Amino acid sequence: MLTRAWPGGYLLPLEDSTSPHSRELEEFGATLVKSAFSEDEIASLRSEIEHVYAKVPPDSRGANKSREIADEFRYEMFNRSPLSQEIVGRREILEVIEPLLGEDCHIIANTCWRNPPSDKSRHGGGSWHIDAGPHIPLAAGQVWPADIPHPTFAIGVHIYLEDCPVEAGPTAVIPGSHKSGRPPPREHHDDAELTFNGVGAQTFATHAGDVLFFVSDVWHRRMPPGREHDGRFFLQVHYARRDIAQRVKTTQDRNHIDEDAMSRIDSVRERLLFGLHGQSFYDG
Question: CB 72: neighbour CB atoms within 10 A?
Answer without folding.
Answer: 21
